[in-house]
Specification:
The complex is a heterodimer of chains A (63) and B (676).
Chain A lengths: L2 H17 L4 H11 L8 H12 L9
Chain B lengths: L3 H19 L7 H27 L9 H4 L11 H12 L3 H9 L4 H28 L6 H8 L2 H30 L3 H24 L4 H24 L11 H17 L6 H26 L23 H8 L8 H6 L13 H24 L3 H8 L2 H4 L3 H10 L6 H10 L12 H16 L4 H38 L9 H24 L5 H29 L7 H23 L7 H14 L4 H40 L19
Helix pairs in contact in B: 1-2, 2-6, 2-15, 4-15, 5-15, 6-15, 6-23, 6-24, 7-8, 7-23, 8-11, 8-21, 8-22, 8-23, 8-26, 9-10, 9-12, 9-21, 10-12, 10-21, 11-21, 11-22, 12-15, 12-20, 12-21, 13-23, 13-24, 15-20, 18-19, 20-21, 21-22, 23-24, 23-26, 24-26, 25-26
Classes of the chains: A mainly alpha (63), B mainly alpha (676).
Chain lengths: 63, 676
């Protein structure tokens, strides 16, 4: 990845984190490091699981 | 360096407060307010915040946080502190800190500003910090769970009932703000309607076409939204299209109720999640824009520091500066709702315990700063204009001439011609009696933006501000309805088990319907209220929010006492006592005061007398009386629930302090951190 591309990717990660968006790359990195035996989910499956856990209960935003 | 920053902050704060104290009579620059506030925040953060972190809570960087121990790459993710600060701030800041100060500006800018700055330093930031800390030590448990474990199961249940009730009032009053901003405004309605297809498009992008590509989808969504904003101007100017998007308040209210129901039963990816992203982007962007705008323009505050309405005769809402200033401004000074968010996603992401000071205490200081800016934007308006926009039609009469005459009796001058000219300048037919705070804030913001980034775009800036407020209020409405539904199902599940199953469709429909009917009822009541709705609903919202803060501070005090730090318990007891004094006084006045503009029961009596005298239609009167009694009952229920929680907590404190029970905290066991 070019230097500019890496910067954009880093910025996108920060935006995701601030807005509470799913981070597929970070999840895959975590899985490979912590549970290398498990297969990586597809992007679609990861997004679905994220939606289920984020909007499952409790308010995520204030008034 | 360690001494230099607090010293400079103290000097800056002292300079700001001195300028405020000395400059009586003539308008002072917003610069002094900003200086006073920021100086106080930095000093408080460095001195009081650090005291809380090291002495009271004893943050320990060697103790592994849940994000480290339970790291799962999804919700438990160690996050750099400034990024998490952004995450937490985006979660706590919303319409509350923008609308409350604007309404409280009827007392003048001084009472609200003092409460915002000192309330946050000693109350709101402490609450957020302590609850974030408590949840972080308990693997991210919610406020309700902590209340249950540390105080008792009944308290946990009561806290949940309180949260559901506050949710209902919150959604009603916020929806009312949107109704008042959008009624008879084809431009606003068109832009807000466009957000629905834009969100659905984003939803398909993120779910079907490019799974998980949320950032691109959100950026595209923001661009489309800005196009819709520009398109709205064309719609409003077109004689054929404008009538199609012009609705009265009641129609818009029913529209929002229907939207709230549909949005919270549809799959979240379709509407709810993309709107959440869209409004977060807009929120962060616009708040930064507002800060930059105020710094560039530094407008003079034309509103007097203190107005005559501190005596309780204010047109926007009735009641004296004490206690009503302190419940009108909740978010920005202290907001119980934050305790729910501070025990939500944030504690699962804290990387090191020490970071919690910046995120919990500092995040709330930042929200207070947003509220101070909203106060500046409102106070920068001509006072006559401010009261023309925010006073109900029952007081101002039907047109600019009657309004200007009425406002002159309050001692503020505004000409009918200038009122009409300003309405035309922002692209509306009228700005009179657009109560609820959002429209006057939008005018204030438009003037600041136009001053900072170029004149001549007033109408675009005004509708930008309206769109941004309506967007995130409606996002609160759909997410709030969904959360309320889960709570309703959980509570009802105690009575009848199958009802608690969140995937059982009949239960989903019935419980969503119940929650929507709850806030919808209060919304319609607010729209039909001859006094404008804000007068009765905003104080109820403030009371419920502050009482929830009292519950959170009870939990916080329990944590501190059980940790063997009873000598430091004043840090949470002080704001707790203040909140109880404020909210109990306000509740008593709202229910029992003899002035029908303040007391719900006195208003019911007044309506009954009007029915007897034949000056009011019996059916209308009966509805008003029912609503007054309902509001009164609700205020009393809030008080009863809170007093029960306070009593249960005090009993627990007594038992621990007298040695009758062992001080057993339910923290997760200590694990050494690999990060320290």
């Amino acid at each position: 990845m070019s230097a500019a591309g890496a910067k954009i990717a880093a910025l996108a990660t920060i935006i995701r984190r601030i807005c509470g968006m799913p981070d597929y790359a970070a999840y895959c990195a975590h899985l490979q490091q912590a549970h290398p035996e498990q297969p990586l989910p597809t992007r679609r499956a990861h997004f679905d699981a994220y939606l289920r856990s984020r909007y499952a209960d409790g308010p995520t935003r204030c008034c | 360096m360690t001494r230099l920053i607090p010293t400079l902050a103290a000097l800056a704060g002292a300079a700001g407060w001195s300028a405020i104290a000395l400059a009586r009579g003539e308008p002072i620059s917003a610069a002094w307010i900003v200086l006073a506030a920021v100086g106080t925040y930095i000093l408080a953060y460095r001195v009081y915040g650090r005291f809380l972190a090291s002495e009271v809570l004893a943050l320990d960087d060697r103790r592994a946080t849940p994000s480290e121990r339970l790291a799962n790459g999804r919700d438990f993710v160690p996050t750099t502190k400034w990024v998490l600060f952004g995450h937490h701030f985006a979660a706590i800041a919303g319409a509350g800190p923008l609308v409350g100060p604007v309404l409280a500006a009827q007392f003048g800018w001084l009472p609200g500003t003092i409460w915002l700055v000192f309330g946050v330093v000693l109350g709101g930031a402490v609450q957020d910090f302590v609850i974030l800390f408590g949840s972080m030590r308990r693997d991210g448990k919610s406020l309700g769970q902590m209340a249950k474990e540390e105080i008792g199961p009944v308290t946990g249940l009561l806290a949940m009932v309180a949260i559901l009730a506050i949710m209902v009032i919150l959604l009603a009053v916020l929806a009312l703000v949107v109704v008042n901003a959008l009624k008879d405004s084809p431009w606003g309605v068109f832009t807000i309607l466009c957000t629905i297809p834009i969100a659905v498009l984003m939803g398909f992008w993120m779910k079907v076409w490019r799974p998980g590509d949320t950032v691109t989808a959100s950026i595209a969504g923001v661009v489309l939204l800005l196009l819709a904003l520009v398109g709205g101007q064309r719609v409003a100017a077109s004689p054929t299209l404008a009538p199609l998007f012009t609705f009265d308040g009641l129609t818009i209210a029913y529209g929002i109720i229907a939207y709230g129901f549909i949005a919270s039963v549809l799959p979240v990816w379709m509407l709810l999640c993309p709107r959440d992203y869209l409004s977060t982007f807009m929120k962060v962007g616009t708040i930064v824009l507002l800060a930059v705008g105020i710094m560039i323009v530094l407008p003079p505050l034309r509103m007097p520091a203190v107005t005559q309405f501190i005596d309780g005769t204010g047109p926007i809402f009735a009641g004296k500066v004490f206690p009503f200033c302190f419940i009108t401004i909740a978010c920005g000074a202290i907001s119980g709702f934050h305790a729910l968010v501070a025990s939500g996603t944030t504690p699962k992401m804290v990387r090191r315990e020490g970071d919690a000071l910046l995120i919990g205490y500092g995040g709330m200081l930042m929200e207070s700063f947003v509220a101070v800016m909203a106060m500046c934007a409102a106070a920068a308006l001509e006072p006559g204009l401010y009261f023309a926009i925010n006073s109900p039609a029952a007081l101002l009469g039907p047109n600019a001439t009657t309004a200007a005459a009425k406002i002159a009796t309050w001692g503020f001058t505004i000409t009918p011609a200038s009122l009409e000219a300003l309405a035309a300048e922002v692209g509306e037919t009228s700005l009179l009696s657009r109560t609820g705070g959002a429209p006057s804030l939008a005018v204030g913001m438009a003037q600041i933006f136009a001053g900072a980034f170029g004149r001549g775009l007033m109408s675009l800036w005004y509708h930008f501000a309206i769109m941004f407020e309506a967007l995130f209020i409606l996002t609160t409405v759909d997410t709030g309805t969904r959360v309320g539904r889960f709570m309703f199902q959980e509570l009802a599940g105690h009575v009848w088990k199958p009802f608690g199953r969140t995937s059982w469709y009949p239960a989903v429909i019935v419980s969503t319907g119940a929650v929507v009917a709850g806030w919808g009822w209060f919304l319609i009541q607010g729209v039909l209220d001859p006094l404008g709705g804000i007068n009765s609903l905003w104080p109820l919202f403030g009371i419920s929010n502050q009482l929830l803060a009292a519950v959170a501070l009870c939990v916080g005090t329990t944590l501190i006492i059980k940790a063997g730090k009873a000598r430091h318990a004043w840090t949470t007891l002080l704001p707790l006592v203040w909140l109880l004094v404020v909210t109990l006084t306000a509740s008593a006045q709202k229910v029992f005061d003899a002035d029908p503009r303040i007391g719900f029961l006195a208003h019911a009596d007044q309506v009954a007398a009007q029915i007897t005298a034949g000056t009011m239609v019996a059916a209308t009167g009966a509805r008003l009386i029912f609503n007054d009694r309902l509001d009164a009952a609700l205020a009393l229920i809030f008080v009863a629930v809170t007093l029960a929680v306070v009593a249960a907590s005090a009993w627990e404190w007594f038992r621990v302090l007298s040695g009758r029970t062992a001080a057993q905290l339910h923290e997760a066991p200590y694990t050494e951190s690999a990060l320290a």
